[in-house]
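Here is one chain, start to finish.
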Amino acid sequence: MVQSKKDLFGAVFAEFLATALFIWIGCGAAISSNTWHSGNSTPEVGSVVGIAIAFGFGISVLAYGIGHVSGGHINPAVTFSFLIRGEMSLASAIMYMLAQFFGAFIGALFLYASVVGLTTGCEGNSVDTIDDGANERLCASSCTLDADSGLFMDCGPPFGLGTNVVSGAIGQGSAFIAELIGTFVLVFTVLMAAVHRSNGSGPNAAPIAIGWSVMLAHLVLVPLTGCGINPARTFGPAIVALFFGADSFVRGAWVYYTAPFAGSLCATLSYEIIFKHVPTVGEEAVTKRPPRSSSVVGNIPEGLASKFVDEA
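Its structure:
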């Protein structure tokens, strides 16, 4: 079905806006949950849970908000799945991805504007003289500690705006596998809960399952990789943090731009080859029902992702 340019513009803008808000919500929670307590740089249990809830619930809320307009991808890895399934044209997929990356950048800019003052009490102070509500954890993660003077200097964005970093405790190969599996969980949930014709959740419940999959991936991956599973989520904070003084060219950066697409490919192939046509429990009863949309939140034909099959 060929859609008008106006429809495509609305869908692309929805992806841009939702991704910007997703970054502000999720990475904002990562900053807030780590700001109000001191200690070392290792994430605490409460912080990990708070971050996971913010990212998971954020996806659910935004998918409900824009699902009927664009399909609610908010992630280039999800868009990639629907591209290789033939439900989007290459031109539409590229426009979606560009909107997602640019949205992540704008969301990170607004997040920086929201939290830029947090490191005021760090600059030029030592561990013993930190002031203005800052603490050692915040200063150590956001500033450089001068070895000679013992003072925090050259402070960048607080906590690097939640930039993804591979933990020094694991190898980059392990990080790749972890990010691949995390993305697999997300995309597989999208396909089975929102696209499969016999899914048991119903199209209007799919965003809940998808949000939970994001939350679960974060519970596992935050201490290991910061949990990317979304190249746009990695890109936006990293670029903005780099602009404002952080060292965003971090160890294992390549992982976040390769593993999500590999995980998406694996999930899509699993769905297409194994699960798409396998009879499911109660399928006879399901087939007697009127056909329904396979969008995240209803009324978008041909899957969660896109109405735009041929824009070229």
